[in-house]
Amino acid sequence: AAAGLSYVGAYVINTYKSYDNFLQDKYALLPAMIIICVAVVMFIIGLIGCCATFRESRVGLGLFLAIILVIFIAEVSAFVLGFVYREKVKTDVQGTMHSVFEKYDGKNPESAVVDYLQEQLHCCGVKNYSDWTTTQWFNSTGNNSVPLSCCRQDMKNCTGRLDQPQEL
After folding, report:
1. What is the pLDDT of residues 45-89, one digit of tens each?
2. How many Å apart are CA 29 and CA 108, to the nearest integer?
3. Are the C-beta atoms of residues 75 and 42 closer than 8 Å to each other?
4. Is there a domain that residue 131 lies in?
5. pTM of the predicted model as reported, rounded to 2 decimal places
6. Count of the separate structural domains present in the chain
7. Does the residue 99 lie in any domain?
8. How far is CA 32 from CA 35, 59, 89, 115, 116, in A?
């Protein structure tokens, strides 16, 4: 269980690195850090539980049960916090994404992150491709199109033009 939790926590932190431009609030990693800390504690407590079992110590096993209950409460708390703050995180991410999309010029590092995000998540814009119509990049290009990273991967001749939304 500790190894599984460690993997989940590390995966969340590693995934965060790809999207850190969209998450201004560094506390978004707090649940992942809690999970990793709980995993380390679970490993140590598991060793204590094994030793108490081999010695057949009632006090050791009682202590082991109490600690496992505390860990369970911590995990439930992390889940509840994630559930309660999901709307705040969603709002913060959307606001930050809109500001990153506004800075898009096709050349700067934020542009590369936007292109990567759209290609990986198979999406276009914050909510849909029409989000691009309000950006400075869209107005400056004057070709009525969105970045090529909005194109569906199975469309080989996609130009990103808005008059062909089936390709986006």
Report:
1. 888 888 888 888 888 888 888 888 887 898 899 889 888 888 887
2. 26
3. no
4. yes
5. 0.51
6. 1
7. yes
8. 5, 32, 14, 26, 23
